[in-house]
Write a structure and sequence with these properties.
single chain; alpha/beta; D-Maltodextrin-Binding Protein, domain 2; 2 domains; ten-stranded mixed β-sheet; 12 helices
């Protein structure tokens, strides 16, 4: 059966997130946030414009602007699986005026994927998870397989002949495909891109065969016939696509995946500033306008305390680190 409407789930998550976020603002503060912020805040996005993290960032920061009374200027700095943006923020002043908006790998698994980094993901300070987005298995419009079972059968019979796009090395799209290949016993060729938009463009053009990507950026392509969703990588079917089976229903167990996007700050940013930012992000995600827009996009709001977010990042690092090791992905 399809899962409950996203709006109902979002309302519950927002209520809890707002309560917890407010508690964090009161309880985690080691002092007063003073006049913060008294000038514009720079938010550096780790991916190009047009993808899920960029979309979530612009929606959430607009709500934060109204709450904080200062502009939040969004700047895209793609490259090195989010490392370019992360390095910039990591070495910025720890005053809350330069923040990172990123996909998961930038703040979790990049140490497994790169021999050296110019930043330490574990020292970035969590502010808020902005969104959760179900992932889907998307194929080019003229792909011959009509089902996941047909795709797997072809891949097994033709090892190395199917390729898949990703948003870049170590991104959720890359690791989900690696997990899929491990679970199904197939050999797929990885074609990394610098973000969602260029990967989708090549998939629609037929240059690549398949991609695991966010529902938010693929649903309309599916409806328009520009690409086809074969399955969703969630426990239950997605309300907006009730006829699309899950991977589990399609015979592929143990390949659940969603994409989430997060706000973090430089190391040693004062707890009072973090609490103020967390509170404003939670309030932004509780707005009716954002809830409605997220529902339209197939996104689920995040929110909650910074403590809960720290635990979440640790678990995601452990989980996907295990996938990286099992898939034999070597650091670049």
């Amino acid at each position: 059966m399809p899962n409950p409407p996203l709006r109902r789930k979002a309302a519950l998550l927002f209520t809890v997130g707002l309560f917890l976020g407010t508690a964090a603002a009161r309880g985690d503060d080691n002092g007063s946030s003073g006049d913060f912020p008294d000038r514009p805040i720079r938010v550096i996005v780790s991916m190009p414009a047009g993808g899920g993290v960029d979309t979530a960032t612009r929606l959430v920061t607009e709500g934060m602007r109204r709450e904080l009374g200062q502009p939040l200027a969004v700047e895209n700095k793609p490259g090195a699986a989010g490392g370019v943006a992360a390095e910039t923020v990591y070495h910025s002043a720890a005053d809350g005026y330069t923040l990172l908006a990123s996909q998961p790998s930038t703040v979790t698994t990049n140490p497994f994927l790169f021999k050296s980094l110019n930043y330490d993901p574990g020292k970035l300070i969590p502010i808020a998870v902005m969104s959760h987005i179900p992932n889907v298995l998307l194929v080019r419009p003229d792909f011959p397989a009509q089902t996941v079972a047909q795709l797997v059968a072809y891949a097994r019979a033709n090892p190395g002949k199917l390729n898949y796009a990703s948003q870049g090395i170590g991104t959720t799209s890359h690791l989900t495909a690696a997990l899929f290949a491990t679970v199904t016993g197939t050999t797929l060729v990885h074609v990394p891109y610098k973000g969602t938009a260029p990967a989708l463009n090549d998939l629609m053009a037929g240059s690549v065969d398949m991609m695991f990507t966010e529902l938010a950026t693929s649903r309309e392509l599916h409806k328009a016939g520009k690409a086809r969703i074969l399955a969703v990588a969630t426990k239950t079917r997605v309300a907006g696509l009730p006829d699309i089976p899950t991977l589990d229903e399609s015979g592929v167990q143990g390949c659940e995946s969603d994409t989430w996007n997060a706000l973090t700050a430089p190391p040693q940013t004062p707890s009072s500033v973090i609490a103020r930012l967390n509170q404003s992000a939670n309030k932004a995600m509780a707005s009716a306008a954002l809830v409605d827009r997220y529902q339209e996009l197939g996104m689920i709001p995040g929110g909650g305390t910074t403590t809960a977010m720290s635990a979440f990042l640790a678990e995601e690092t452990r989980r996907w680190g295990a996938v990286i090791r099992a898939a034999g992905i070597e650091p670049q």
